[in-house]
Design goal:
Strand content of chain B: over 45%
Largest sheet of chain A: 3 strands, antiparallel
Strand order of the largest sheet of chain A: 1-2-3
Strand content of chain A: 15-25%
Structural class of chain A: alpha+beta
Radius of gyration of chain B: 14 Å
Shape of chain B: globular
Number of strands of chain B: 12
CATH topology of chain B: Jelly Rolls
Helix content of chain A: 25-40%
Largest interface: A-B, 27 and 28 residues
Oligomer: heterodimer
Structural class of chain B: mainly beta
Number of helices of chain B: 0
Shape of chain A: elongated
Distance between the termini of chain A: 41 Å
CATH architecture of chain B: Sandwich
Largest sheet of chain B: 6 strands, antiparallel
Distance between the termini of chain B: 6 Å
Number of strands of chain A: 5
């Protein structure tokens, strides 16, 4: 039996300067953007209990739990006017229209 | 699915897009940016700040042809540009990465597999490396690797 362990130290990106890793980035599960994770920086981030991941701290990411994949699908559905998918996603995530790319 | 590399250069005055990667007018596949580098071909002391931000509409620029990593792959559908004469339209508050560096130190960012910056299949959507400020503007060279 395996146990899934959340590793909060896992990095989603590495910052390298002159051949040396000097930092790491984490991926926000809501906007799909990377942010520099610097312990002790004082930057206010967030935590989504549904996604079980650290958030970037942007107001829209803190306010709504809309996974980035949902936003991508919504943008792609609007691109081809796929009303079935648009309605499905607007029903599942009522505020997704406000966050459209 | 192929992996491609693009690079461009421009003087990094404030609000200048050095390099942009966009979906074509009829987007076909998602693009995933997994690597970014920013450097200079001249050594001097100038700190800079830039962002990788989402684009909703492409600007007017000098075309850059994506180079394929694997010669067996086909040409990329994505379009890229440098030396913009007309800036792209950036999506507000959609900054995918901030880059704070120095002219003497080459900045590189690698995404872990599966953690790339994704550009959805939306016509003309993309990401652009835009200079925010530089202590003293210089010729900046930016490279990006993406897969589609």
């Amino acid at each position: 039996m395996s146990i899934a362990i959340h590793d909060s130290t896992r990095e989603d990106g590495a910052v390298v300067e002159n051949g040396r890793q000097v930092g790491r980035t984490l991926l926000c599960p809501h906007c799909g953007g990377h942010f520099h994770s610097i312990p002790g920086s004082g930057k206010k981030r967030g935590w989504c209990r549904a996604c079980n991941k650290v958030l970037c701290g942007k107001a829209s990411c803190l306010k709504y739990c809309i996974p980035a994949e949902g936003r991508f699908e919504y943008a792609e559905a609007r691109n081809v006017q796929n009303q079935k998918v648009i309605k499905k996603l607007e029903g599942r995530y009522p505020n997704i229209k406000d966050l459209a790319f | 699915m192929g992996v491609y590399f693009i690079d461009g250069q421009d003087t990094n005055t404030a609000s200048t897009t050095v390099l942009a990667l966009n979906q074509p007018a009829s987007a076909l596949k998602r693009l995933k940016v997994g690597y970014l580098s920013a450097g200079s071909d001249v050594s001097a002391d100038s700190a800079f700040e830039a962002v990788l931000q989402r684009i909703s509409t492409a600007g007017t620029s000098t075309s850059v042809t994506p180079q394929k990593r694997d010669p067996a792959d086909g040409a990329a559908s994505a379009v890229a540009g440098e030396a913009h004469t007309s800036e792209p339209t950036y999506t507000a508050n959609e900054i995918m990465l901030t880059i704070n560096g120095h002219q003497r130190a080459t900045f590189q960012w690698y995404a872990a597999p599966g953690r790339e910056v994704v550009i959805p299949v939306t016509n003309n959507a993309g990401v652009g490396y835009q200079s925010i400020t530089a202590a003293s503007a210089f010729n900046q060279i930016v490279g990006m690797e993406f897969e589609e």
